[in-house]
Write a structure and sequence with these properties.
With about 625 residues, this protein is mainly α. Helix content is about 60%, strand content about 5%.
């Protein structure tokens, strides 16, 4: 078998460079793309840097980081104080941490499966993941907390001991400072300990040690939140749900967000509404399931072949079934069939079969997994339990960007490696064809190469879409030609032009720029008032829009959240000196306020920039 041959060669030749080879190639390509090709424009790290700068040097009580702890903003601001460029800081951190994640993955899989070939295949699967590339090169926000989750998974994969749970608690606690999603990894490990075949005494001791050190590590942040904002956890998902949740609940979530940032009430009613809401069911069996299994042929998923619909189902779910070590018993037939029938009846009754058909796949498999827990290999069990608990917890909110679910990648490469090195040989053996069995190595290699090539191609197009707005998919020859063509990011070009123009304005560092981008205010070191140009206004008055008098309360608080400096308390009421509109997509309709300003004869509004390619414009507002 392929697995046996690779292990024999490894032991014979002692190629100790193997665990380092894929991370080194990955880091080299990321350096080339991130620092040599990518032209950063309006990226989120500028928002996090501004929040961190305000915490370190301004008024921390004015800052609200809606989707994480203070760790990432403070880290960016601290290192940028010394380096001077937040883009270089964020890219350097993402480069180092993403390389370490891929390096650690090799040892996690080797510890669990005891196979070098499986470890290499799983490591390669992670290294070619397009969304790991995207965050490492462009967005840079999630690699650092993800590194500590992978470190906790590595410790979990090692020989069992009570003390190792102290390290797991430490790493998850550090991750929590940056992103709160890791708490569901913690719950997954606790669930694993509770169902594992261990004595109550040892289980309780491990859970207490794990939880105690986790709480100890996050306590300084909790104390900071309490002393600054009057709450231990300064977060709730209402802003995210207003932006990404169902249309029918947008007003409710918007009202929760306004109440949160102004009065910081308790969150009990909020979480009741999240859990007991159809949106949660939709997240479980439709929106978030797509991220793993590619249910609707969209590009935003972690499935092995992102461009092929349902490609995650046969690889991940069949591998899970294989690991259950099923036996031919009546119960193993009755249980999943019963779950399938009950699920189908419920979905048909509520007329939701077309929406939640995936439940008919996943629920019977989970029921079989629960029934088969004692037959699953002890080292493998946690890496099956943790992703299920993590997924169920994270599905409190809809996930559209796979990188927000990146912690599930502690298990997906592992499942893919088992699929290639165990399940495929097992299925080929079942054919009882000597010819097919002899060619098993070639078949496995072909599967791995197909997945690697498809992911590399998809990653290239995804980065082209993100960096150059290149949404056209041509022939192979067209794509090769475009690869060698000199490219320029139109948005970056316009932002740089506008930044250069405004940097020559008198006292620009004291002015306020109202815009739909963070980048210009960051470049010229000025203040900013955030606008999406899609605010709900009560009138079409230019002055009322600029002063935000016609905006809804939610839109004002949302603007304050992303402005420089942030104004959580809504005390500033700044008046803009410039208005900058960036047309990010050529198909975007020009906002009414831009049309009104462009048509205005009032000398108070002076157009000082107009792109010759897009509707991007800049107006100087001559305030009295």
């Amino acid at each position: 078998m392929l697995n046996l041959k690779l292990q024999m060669n490894f032991k014979k030749k002692q190629p100790k460079v193997l665990p380092y080879l894929i991370p080194i190639i990955f880091i080299g390509l990321v350096i080339l793309t991130s620092f040599g090709i990518h032209q950063p424009t309006d990226i989120d790290v500028i928002f996090y840097y501004n929040a961190g700068y305000e915490i370190l040097h301004g008024d921390g009580s004015n800052v609200y980081v809606s989707n994480g702890g203070i760790g990432w903003p403070v880290t960016l601001a601290f290192f940028t104080d010394y380096v001077g460029d937040v883009i270089i800081v964020s890219k350097s951190i993402a480069l180092v941490t993403s390389g370490l994640i891929i390096f650690i993955t090799f040892f996690i899989i080797r510890n669990v499966l005891g196979s070098i070939s499986s470890a290499l295949i799983g490591q390669a699967f992670l290294a070619i993941n397009p969304f790991i590339h995207l965050d490492a090169i462009i967005t840079n926000n999630d690699m650092l907390p993800l590194l500590f989750i992978f470190l906790s998974a590595y410790v979990l994969s090692r020989k069992d001991s009570t003390k190792k749970y102290l390290l797991i608690g430490l790493f998850l606690g550090i991750s929590f400072w940056f992103r709160y999603q890791c708490v569901f990894i913690l719950f997954g490990i606790i669930t694993y300990l509770l169902i594992s075949n261990q004595t109550i005494r040892f289980t309780a001791k491990k859970i207490i040690l794990l939880s105690a050190l986790f709480m100890l590590v996050i306590t300084p942040m909790l104390l900071y939140n309490y002393s600054t904002h009057g709450v231990l956890l300064d977060i709730d998902p209402s802003l995210y749900l207003e932006v990404y949740g169902s249309e029918t609940d947008k007003k409710m979530w918007g009202d929760f967000f306004v109440e949160k940032v102004t009065t910081n009430p308790g969150n009990i009613n909020l979480f009741d509404k999240i859990i007991f809401n159809q949106q949660y069911v939709d997240n479980l069996f439709k929106t978030n399931s797509h991220i793993v299994f590619n249910l609707n042929s969209g590009i935003n998923n972690f499935s092995p072949i992102p461009i092929i619909q349902f490609s995650g189902i046969p690889i991940f779910l069949l591998t899970a079934l294989f690991l259950f070590n099923l036996r031919k018993s009546k119960l193993e037939f009755i249980i999943p069939i019963s779950v399938l029938l009950i699920s189908a009846i419920i979905l048909v009754y509520y007329n939701k079969l077309a929406d939640f058909y995936f439940a008919l796949f996943i629920l019977p498999i989970i029921s079989l997994g629960i029934f088969s827990i004692k037959r699953i290999e002890p080292k493998i069990l946690p890496f099956l339990v943790i992703p299920v608990v993590f997924f169920a917890g994270l599905s409190l909110v809809p996930i559209f960007d796979p990188i927000n679910m990146a912690a599930i990648l502690i298990s997906l490469p592992f499942l893919f490696a088992i699929f290639c090195t165990r399940l495929i040989p097992f299925l080929l053996k079942k054919t009882k064809s000597l010819l097919i069995i002899k060619k098993s190595n070639s078949i496995i290699l072909a599967v791995v190469l197909i997945i690697i090539i498809s992911n590399i191609g998809f990653s290239y197009k995804l980065e082209g879409m993100t960096m150059y707005q290149d949404y056209e998919i041509g022939t192979i020859s067209d794509e090769i030609r475009k690869f060698f063509e000199k490219k320029e990011n139109r948005i970056n070009f316009e932002i740089n032009q506008i930044s250069q123009l405004l940097s020559n304005e008198l006292n620009i560092n004291e002015k306020y720029i109202m815009s739909n981008t963070y980048a210009i205010a960051y470049n010229v070191k000025s203040n900013s008032i955030h606008t999406s140009f899609g605010e709900n206004v009560s009138s079409k008055s230019i002055d009322e829009f600029l002063l935000r008098e016609s905006w809804s309360t939610f839109d004002i608080m949302y603007s304050n959240h992303y402005s420089i400096p942030p104004d959580r308390k809504n005390l500033g009421h700044p008046i803009p000196d410039y208005l900058v509109y960036i047309q990010f997509q050529r198909a975007d309709e020009t906002p009414w306020i831009i049309k009104a300003l462009d048509d205005s004869q009032d000398s108070k509004f002076e157009k000082i920039y107009q792109s010759d390619q897009t509707k991007t414009m800049v107006f100087k507002i001559n305030n009295p």
